[in-house]
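This section describes the prediction task in plain terms. A model, or a person checking by hand, is given the sequence of a single protein chain and must write out its three-dimensional structure as a string of tokens. No templates, partner chains or ligands are provided. The sample shown here is typical of the held-out split.
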Amino acid sequence: MFRPLLIATMLALPAVAVAQSAPVADAAESGSPPQRVRAVTLNAGEKCPQSTGNEIVVCSTLEQPYRIPKQFRDSGPIPAKNQAWGNRAATMDQVGRVAGGLPDTCSPVGSGGQSGCALATNRAWAAERRAQQDANASVP
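The expected answer:
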């Protein structure tokens, strides 16, 4: 039962070996790493220069200087399950402070909760202003 499969495998092995020994780039054949990695920032209308020999050329444009595509950047707040435990612990600590009405929390419960209302208002105003500046900066 396995004999025909074994024979077919033995006949296919030389074809696979020939396909793997197809010619590749000079650096890959020598097995040596590239000697130089060059990062180039392009202006509008320029094209990326070709790499030569043992050189790698990485191109970026002024509009998108990052390698991560824009649709994958700044996707909003990170879900709690994907955050580090330190961030989760800090969030739980802050929630507990607000629930307990501790000072600087702007909570209606507790003796010192009212002292943080001005601080919370200022932080909200600053965040709103930063968001407006970012929106104005992204509009051409």
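For orientation: The helical segments are 3-20, 26-30, 85-100, 117-138.
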